[in-house]
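>> received
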Amino acid sequence: MTVFSAAPSHPSYLRVVRASAWYDLVVTAGFATPWTYALVHGGLSSLGRASGLGVLPALEPMQILYANLMGSVVVVWALLRVARPLPAHGLFDGAARVLFAAWQAYALAHGAPGVLWPFLAVEVALGLAQLVPWLGAVRAGDEPGPASA
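>> returned
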């Protein structure tokens, strides 16, 4: 049995996959262009300053480039999951969230502003929501359902 043959196929799982995609669209669309990223950067810095969680570093061309690359890729990935959520999308998105959470935790441990904490919490929660059903399905040896990958 492969991991894909044990895909969680319940409609509620696909709603989680789609909801995580909508979250990504809302949170990362502003990162996709230099102009919108400048607005997001300013907003996050203001929020961090007001809450005492710290401001983001000053905008620089390479930081803007990496933010735009990340924003563009995440927006496209989110649109795929909104348009056609599949169990495999949840598996891969959960894995990506583990990576995102690891790098956010690394940044926080090395002095990144605390305004990242809420984003880290959401990454962990959505990662668990998408990966735990896979663990249960693999352990149970579930047969693939009609909505499987």
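>> The first helix runs from residue 11 to 28.
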